[in-house]
Amino acid sequence: MPGQTNTERGLHVRAQLLAAARELIGELGWNAVSTRILAERAGVRPGLVHYHFESLQALLRQATLEAMRPMLGDTAALLVAAPNPADAIAAMLAETDRYTGTDPASLLFIEAYLAATRDPLLRDQMNELMTDFRGALTASLARSGHPAPEEAAIITMAVMDGFLLHKGLNPQLSATRLTPLLRRLTDTDRDGPDR
Fold first, then answer.
1. What's the pTM?
2. DSSP, res 84
3. N or C: which end of the chain has fewer CB within 10 A?
4. In the CATH scheme, what is the homologous superfamily, with its name and number, of domain 6-186?
5. What is the model's pLDDT at position 1?
6. 10 exposed, middle or buried (CB, 10 Å; 0-12, 13-18, 19+)?
């Protein structure tokens, strides 16, 4: 890293540590990631982990949230781009078929959900992200005149999360099978199917 300032080098090391943490959480499991293993994967000295982050747990939290934030943001963008919430849900489900349930992103999310049951700070931070996303989905459903927008948003998110868990057990599952059901749940066309 010749020619870099100390600040640039520090940012580079932090980025390496965060990337390594995201990989290792999915590969080994949240609790199996150690400072030594993380530093080895990042190609840095173990002491730099605690130099750049207050603790290993703080680093793991940040790595996870930095992965979740853009994924949820991209999904929320589908709400804006779609002509109605039912089409947005169909697009979101189509996106979930990119994930196998055993891919790095799925494993990272699954491990994070489990870790959040034991880590109140992680739980609060993840809850904030999910609440924001659920709020965007609820607002989209409300704008379209859905009679129960918050409840429909909660159910939709639970189905999508559960679907990704099940894909880890059976990668042959496809979101296209769920699309008609969730379309009916989120459809606001008064002449459409009964709820």
1. 0.86
2. S
3. N
4. Tetracycline Repressor, domain 2 (1.10.357.10)
5. 56
6. middle
